[in-house]
Amino acid sequence: MAYQIAKTVRSVFPGLEEKIMSLCDPRKRKDYSLAELVVGGIMLSVFKEGSRNAFDNDRREARFRKNYGRAFKLRLPSMDAVEDLYRLLGEGELENLKSLLVKTLVEKKIFYKFRFMGKKYFVAIDGTGVASYGIDYCGKCTCKTSKNGKTTYFHNVLEAKLVTCNGMSVSIATEWVRNENGKEYDKQDCELNAFKRLAVKLKKMYPRLPLVILADGLYANQSFFRICRDNGWGFIVTFKDGSLPSVHEEMGLLPGSAWQRRGRFLAGKGKRTKQSFRWINGIGYRSFELSVVECKETTVHAATGETQENTFTHITDMPIDNSNYHLVS
Known about the structure:
Elements: H1 2-12, H2 16-21, H3 34-46, H4 52-59, H5 62-72, H6 79-88, H7 91-107, E1 121-133, E2 142-145, E3 151-163, E4 169-177, H8 187-205, E5 211-215, H9 222-230, E6 234-238, H10 245-253, E7 260-268, E8 271-285, E9 288-301, E10 307-316, H11 325-328
Parallel strand pairs: 1-5, 5-6
Antiparallel strand pairs: 1-3, 2-3, 3-4, 6-10, 7-8, 8-9, 9-10
């Protein structure tokens, strides 16, 4: 596996070692090169080691070290040395390196065939937990107190990931979710503020990359819409009951004939799914003109005869028609 990974890296990312070596090195003592430490840290995840200690146990085996060196042409450092570097390395250093690698993939047209309507790339925005503690581990943790009075301290990040219809997901930018006012953690407030910072980072890193931002119902608000519009991005947001009441009200006043409708069947392994779509364009909200598409999905499992029903509704700034209704929903 190591040889295949190394072969792929050299093929897709030529000059990776030189890019890593161009990072700002904060160390005074340098027993390992930056490339050896950064690649070692990456391989900790790629090899799915359970911990730094587990990787160090493999490192003690002569055969493992020998094969690693042959594959990557680098020494295998101890994970303590990797951690020491990561604690000192500037927060933006690896983020900029990631941006360079993503731009390489875009230039090589790796995601070209997955563009929305042959024009824009889908980028999903979502928060995720990184670590949690029983104490304020670093003095900067966000925190939340449960009903029983227990306080949990944690760090979350907001991720922007380029996603494709075949299930590929590639992180293109990351922003820490911070509670800047020192108050009890509020998911909506903290994530939306993190998105404002993330949007600045995305535009700076990929100024000309055409994007459609995908987000959950938390982001169905004027501030998010405006940020996307100002940056020239499209958006598709999960539309839940209770979100944007004026939009729901306008939809309720429209006659059934105002909606466009289509249906299709999907066959999978041991199941058959019927999708019934309806959509409408030209819904006014503040200074935005929005479209809503709804998909009612009924799935029948052949083996058990069990039926599952789900409804998915999304709101977007893009006009919906016969060519894209199924892509938006």
